[in-house]
Structures are given as structure tokens and as C-alpha cells.
Design goal:
By secondary structure, the chain is an all-alpha fold. 75% of the residues lie in helices and 0% in strands. The protein has ten helices and no strands.
Length: 216
């Protein structure tokens, strides 16, 4: 097998990802300007200069055009756990360190980001019922991926799948609540720099609760 034939799938996938991003960006720009419900899929396709069938090959549903920005994060916690396992870190330590790094980088997924374009996107996301519903499905898949990663580190197929699911559900919920707290404060007018110390402290409190159990 030649080097070119090995490299080709990677090149094709990168081209597809560039197309997905261009389609998503065109759609989000229209949705921010006019509202999600006021823009048709045909209008998105026209703005991106593709046909509707082409658009649907990349995004099966209109909502997916917006949620594409979350796509890389869907199995992020699972990947963090797996990477931590390779270096000897336990899941909660790996996830906590990853969250703190995200806060320091102002990663939008942590909620600690006050860039105007990010705030506008979040208003679109959380202000559109259809997108909120789609976001729930994303979180369900995220929990499932994390549960699989946790189970794999606890004896593989013989691990208790219920315990892994319970743990994954708690972790994903903690990350969501922390992000929502940060987002709410920034939406109310505070800067990311002003919120950061409290966000770091809240992350520490949340992960201690995960390790030690809830105080109720």
C-alpha cells in the first residue's frame, strides 16, 4: 500500500471537516442575525453556496448546524480519562486538571469566556428550545462515552456498568452546572477575569464533593 493511499483518508476527512465548519459558520451567522426559527435550511444552503442535499449530507438536522461547535467536546471527558489512565492519573484528578486548564484558557465550554461572539452564540443556543433539546441528546451521548471509559478502567467488561453510568452522570452534571454558573455571571455583566477565582474555587469544591460524596 502506498503512502499516498494511507494519507488520502486523512486528507479527505480534513476537507470534510473544513466544509462542515464553513457550513456551520454560515448558518450560525444567519441565525444570530435573524433568529434560528426565521432561517430556513434552503437559505443556509444558499448562503454557503451548496445544495440542500449536500448540506444534509453533512448535517442531518438543522439543529446540528449550531451544535457542531460542541462536536469536539462530546467525548472530551472520556478522552481525558483515557489519556490520564495512560499517565497513571485517576479519572477525577485528570478531569479536574483538564477543567482548571480550560478555565485558564477561557475555553468557552467552561462558561468562563466573555468574548462577544461566544456570548452571542450562547444566547442563541440557550434561547432556542429546539437547540436546548438537541443539547440534551449531546449530553446523553457524552455520559455514555464517559461511562464506557470509566468502566474500561475498572476491570473492562466485568466492571459494574450501573456504577460507571452513575459516576458519569454525576461528573457530566457537575461540569454542566459549573459552566452554567460561570455563564450566568458573565451574562449578567461580569468579566471572565473577575469570575475566574470563584470559578476555580467552585471547581475545587465540586470535585471534592465527587470524591467524598454529597453532604446531604
Amino acid at each position: 500500500m502506498s503512502d499516498e493511499s494511507v494519507a488520502a483518508p486523512g486528507l479527505r476527512e480534513r476537507k470534510k471537516e473544513r466544509t462542515r465548519r464553513a457550513l456551520s459558520d454560515a448558518a450560525v451567522a444567519l441565525f444570530l442575525e435573524r433568529g434560528f426559527d426565521a432561517v430556513s435550511v434552503a437559505e443556509v444552503a444558499a448562503a454557503a453556496e451548496v445544495s440542500k442535499p449536500t448540506l444534509f449530507r453533512y448535517f442531518p438536522a438543522k439543529e446540528d448546524l449550531v451544535l457542531h461547535r460542541f462536536a469536539d467536546h462530546e467525548d472530551e471527558s472520556a478522552r481525558v480519562v483515557e489519556a490520564g489512565r495512560r499517565t497513571g492519573a485517576d479519572p477525577l484528578d485528570a478531569l479536574s486538571a483538564h477543567l482548571l486548564d480550560g478555565l485558564a484558557r477561557r475555553d468557552p465550554v467552561t462558561g468562563l469566556c466573555d468574548h462577544p461572539s461566544v456570548l452571542a452564540y450562547l444566547r442563541l443556543l440557550y434561547g432556542t428550545p429546539a437547540l436546548v433539546g438537541r443539547l440534551h441528546a449531546y449530553r446523553v451521548r457524552s455520559e455514555a462515552a464517559l461511562a464506557d471509559a470509566l468502566a474500561a478502567g475498572s476491570g473492562g467488561p466485568g466492571a459494574d456498568p450501573l456504577l460507571a453510568r452513575l459516576a458519569a452522570g454525576q461528573i457530566v452534571t457537575v461540569l454542566r452546572v459549573l459552566a452554567e454558573e460561570n455563564t450566568a455571571r458573565i451574562a449578567a455583566g461580569e468579566t471572565a477575569d473577575a469570575v475566574e477565582a470563584d470559578a476555580v474555587a467552585a471547581a475545587g469544591l465540586a470535585f471534592r464533593a465527587l470524591r467524598e460524596g454529597l453532604p446531604y
